[in-house]
Amino acid sequence: MQKTILITGGSRGIGKATADILKIAAYEVLAPSSKELDVTSEKSIRDYLNNNLSSKPLYGLVCNAGIFYENSIEKHSIEKFSEILDVNLTGAFRSVQACLANLKAAEGARIILISSVSAYGDTGAPAYSASKAGLIAMMKSIAPELAHDQITINAINPGWVRTDMAKAILNSEEAEKNNLGATLLKRWIEPEEIGELVKFLLSDKASAICGETINIDAGLMV
To answer: DSSP class of residue 2?
Structure first.
């Protein structure tokens, strides 16, 4: 039976690259945009699952939906802080919770959270950093519970991935040089490289990896 994978925020960037790789690997991939599946709305998630999965087993959930915002602590609004956490962290929690029944119906299901090296603290992005650190803490917290049902959960921490969002942040030659120059390999990470890591974590070869955080950051020394 073909295994089904759901990727939140799957219409562009890391999500789309991952979806394309998994389709080639013969998975059935659901990769909705944020308009099709809004992770800030329990109803939106529930409606999407009912329309696309119903009681069908879900082998893999990749929580990739996320937004970025940066500002100093003096100028960072509480509203924006809450919005970032609602999408990046609470959105992943909602998605995992809503998908549990479908995941339990599959054999050896996998959950992968797309966090970030910003989880270690990114100057000027307190909400984004907090949301990504929260994903890792949440993963560590629920891994023992999920393991009772033979569901593994892991997190991936990408560094500077060549996406529209990252290119908008590094929007000058100097910014790109300074940030990519801080990595050992001094280069962008391609979205497909994250997708290949997701594919590995979904494979039988990764069945014993559980509760782990994996950095893929071109050698960023944090």
So the answer is: P
- Specify the DSSP class assigned to residue 139: H
Closest by CA to 124, choosing from 175, 164, 90, is 175
**Model confidence over 79-91: pLDDT tens digits?**
999 999 999 999 9
> CA–CA separation, 216 vs 50, rounded Å?
34
| Calpha distance 143→203 (Å, rounded) | 18
> Which residues 6+ apart lie within 8 Å of 124 measured at CB?
70, 71, 72
Lowest mean pLDDT among 104-113, 120-129, 195-204: 120-129
Q: Which residues are catalytic?
A: 128
- How far apart CA 220 and CA 222 sit, in angstroms, is 6
DSSP state of 208: T
